[in-house]
Structures are given as C-alpha cells and as structure tokens.
C-alpha cells in the first residue's frame, strides 16, 4: 500500500477475492478489486505517461538551450554551468513542498499546480532578455516540475490494486524515454538552422526561444487533461471522505464493466488499520500550511532516521545519487560537448583531444557583434542524441 507520510509504496502480502470478501463493507483494496482493472486504468496510464514524458522534456530542455542561447546571453562556461544547475537547485527546494501539499490538498491538486508553475516559468523564460531573470525562471521550472515527477507515481498507483501496481508503475517508466527521444526531434526542427536563417532585429524571437516556449506547452496540456480525472480514492479514504471515494470507485466500476454504478457492491468504505499514522497525529492540531508542512517533514525525517529505515535510506540515497549524477551530467551536457567537438574540429582538423580536454575548454563571451556568433547546432548532434536514451 502507499504510505502518504513517507511517499513510498509498501506491499502487504494480502490477496482479496471479490467473490468471497464481505461486499457490504471494505477498505481500499477490497473496493478497487470490485471496481476491476480495465479501460479506466489504461487511459489513466496514458495520461500519467504523458505527464511523465512532459517531466522528462522539461527536465532536459536546457541541454539544447546551452549551445543555442550563448549568442543572445553571451554565455561563458561558468554561465552555462550555472544555467544547468539552476533547475536542479529548484528541485531541491521543491521536494520539501510538493509532498506536503499532496498529503494536505490531494495528489491531483499538487500535480496540476506543479505543471502550471512549470508552464508559466517556461513561458516567461522564452521572452526574458536578462540572463539573471532567465536563471530565476529556470529555478522555478525545476521547483515546479519535480512535483509532478515524484507525485505522478503516487497518483497512478492509488488507482491500482496490489497485484497490478508494480507492473503498471514499471510501464510508466517507458514514457520518460519517450520524452527524451521526442526532445531531440523537436530541437532538430527548430535549432538546426544556420545563423543566416535566423531573423534578427531588436525584438526578434530566436529559434531557441521558440523551442523553450514549445517545450513548456505539454505541461499546460497535461494539466488540462488531469483536471478532468478524479482525485485518488486512497487519498480520499485517508481524509475520511468515504462518500467521495465511493463515487470514484463507482465511476471506475462503470467505466471498466459497463454496469450501472449503483450496482457497485461496496456500500461502506472503511479506513485501513495502518493508514498514515502521522496523519492521525496531526489531524487535531490547528496549524497553517507551512507550519504543518514543516512539522510533518520533521516527523518524517525522524522516522527515516530510525534504525528500521536508516540502512535502506542510506542504500537508496547512495544509488539514486550515483544514477542522477551520471544521468543528468550526460543528458544536460552532451549537446554542448558535441558542439565543442565540432567547433574545435573545424578550427583544428588534426584535433585529437578527448572528452575531458574538451570539457575543460573555457568559453569566453564574444566581444564582437552578434553576427559573428553562430548558434547553429550540427545535425549529427541531434541524430546522435536520438539513440542515447
């Protein structure tokens, strides 16, 4: 089951048979088994997959902006490093907010707000002309998108029974790769142009700005689609909104079976015995949102520091740190590294320098007119990145 306090799923070895269980009363697992697995979950997987692919696109958009925007912002190597790091810094701060928001106001609300924040930051960043403002926009891009990236698994998983949950959540990971494959194709169509093809005037909209704008649109589209889906019944049960949760189960039952929702056999929902003990601790305490979030975060950290979880927490953090460090380093910097290989190769045909030497090459802002700065990215950079995911 999903523990909303810790943000993880804990599988309990319980198999419920809808034919033999007491149909009049039941908890989440009983009700979701009666609602069946079918068309609703498949459509939900498709929309959740779109959201997750959007997260992949949003998280790696800057990989193509770095070599393309260097002319407009006169970027140095240090500037590019700051630009690459800023969304990740935003993610660090966003992690502290979105989990608490999902627990207090619902998974659906948290995901929609995070997607809208990502869309707005992307929209604004495509128009700003000041580098520091662009950095701020990318900070909020990371701050927002990490909410959808992490909570979408909880949202999807809370519509699925234990026996199908791992299989469906595993399929959700496929959509991240789809997003990473789509991104070079979009970039190829917009950024694979020579400087003479770029319209230049005082208020011109450079191709990389169009690219950033287009990459922000999936967040808005995903938020609109999610708006028409229900809140998870598991969250509603945790908040003792049993009637609302039952209505959600009825809709799932009707969608999957074609039968009338009034024939849904579970008439009274009940809270699970081990459902979110931290929620019970805080339910009678009147606090504002921020104090409540900090209090829950403190309790969660104390729980994770206990002997029961500390070992697993350490192993998980170590593995995740290694994976993310290597993944984001490669994905964010590959276009820039390939571009440096090409530019140095054109100047020095006998160049035999490797990746480390190329990476340590410092780029200084051009002191000449913008017309001498070429933001063109070679086509082979895009074609190569299509195969990397």
From TrEMBL:
What does UniProt give as GO cellular component? membrane
A GO molecular function for this record? transmembrane transporter activity
Q: What InterPro entries would the database entry show?
A: MFS_dom, MFS_sugar_transport-like, MFS_trans_sf
Q: Which Gene3D superfamilies match?
A: MFS general substrate transporter like domains
**Domain of life of the organism encoding this protein:** Eukaryota
Where it sits in the cell: the answer is: Membrane
Which residues span the membrane? 43-65, 85-102, 109-128, 140-162, 174-191, 211-229, 312-334
Q: Which residues form the Major facilitator superfamily (MFS) profile domain?
A: 44-389
Q: Which residues form a coiled coil?
A: none
Keyword list, A-Z: Membrane, Transmembrane, Transmembrane helix, Transport
Membrane disposition: Multi-pass membrane protein
Q: Which PANTHER family does the UniProt record give?
A: SYNAPTIC VESICLE 2-RELATED PROTEIN-LIKE PROTEIN, SYNAPTIC VESICLE GLYCOPROTEIN 2
UniProt lists the family membership as follows: Belongs to the major facilitator superfamily.
Q: What is this protein called?
A: Synaptic vesicle glycoprotein 2B-like
């Amino acid at each position: 089951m999903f523990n909303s306090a810790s943000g993880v799923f804990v599988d309990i070895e319980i198999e419920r048979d809808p034919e033999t269980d007491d149909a009049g009363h039941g908890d989440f697992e009983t009700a979701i088994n009666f609602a069946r697995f079918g068309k609703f979950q498949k459509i939900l997987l498709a929309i959740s997959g779109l959201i997750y692919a959007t997260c992949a696109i949003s998280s790696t958009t800057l990989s193509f902006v770095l070599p393309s925007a260097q002319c407009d912002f006169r970027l140095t190597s240090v500037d590019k490093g700051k630009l690459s790091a800023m969304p990740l810094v935003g993610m660090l701060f966003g992690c502290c907010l979105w989990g608490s928001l999902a627990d207090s106001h619902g998974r659906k609300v948290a995901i929609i707000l995070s997607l809208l924040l990502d869309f707005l930051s992307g929209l604004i960043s495509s128009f700003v002309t000041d580098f520091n403002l662009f950095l701020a926009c990318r900070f909020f891009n990371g701050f927002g998108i990490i909410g959808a990236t992490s909570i979408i698994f909880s949202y999807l998983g809370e519509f699925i029974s234990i026996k199908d949950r791992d299989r469906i959540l595993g399929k959700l990971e496929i959509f991240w790769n789809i997003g990473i494959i789509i991104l070079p194709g979009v970039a190829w169509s917009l950024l694979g142009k020579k400087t003479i093809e770029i319209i230049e005037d005082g208020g011109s909209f450079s191709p990389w700005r169009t690219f950033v704008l287009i990459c922000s649109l999936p967040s808005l589209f995903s938020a609109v689609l999610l708006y028409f889906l229900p809140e998870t019944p598991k969250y509603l049960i945790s908040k003792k909104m049993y009637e609302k949760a039952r209505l959600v189960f009825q809709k799932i039952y009707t969608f999957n079976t074609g039968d009338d929702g009034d024939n849904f056999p579970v008439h009274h929902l009940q809270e699970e015995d081990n459902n979110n003990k931290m929620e019970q601790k805080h339910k009678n305490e009147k606090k504002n949102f921020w104090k409540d979030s900090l209090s829950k975060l403190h309790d969660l950290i104390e729980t994770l520091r206990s002997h029961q979880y500390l070992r697993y927490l350490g192993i998980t953090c170590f593995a995740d740190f290694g994976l993310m460090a290597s993944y984001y380093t490669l994905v964010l910097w590959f276009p820039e590294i390939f571009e440096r290989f090409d530019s140095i190769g054109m100047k020095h045909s006998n160049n035999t320098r490797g990746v480390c030497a190329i990476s340590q090459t410092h780029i200084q802002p051009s002191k000449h007119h913008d017309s001498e700065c070429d933001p063109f990215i070679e086509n082979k950079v895009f074609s190569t990145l299509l195969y990397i995911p």
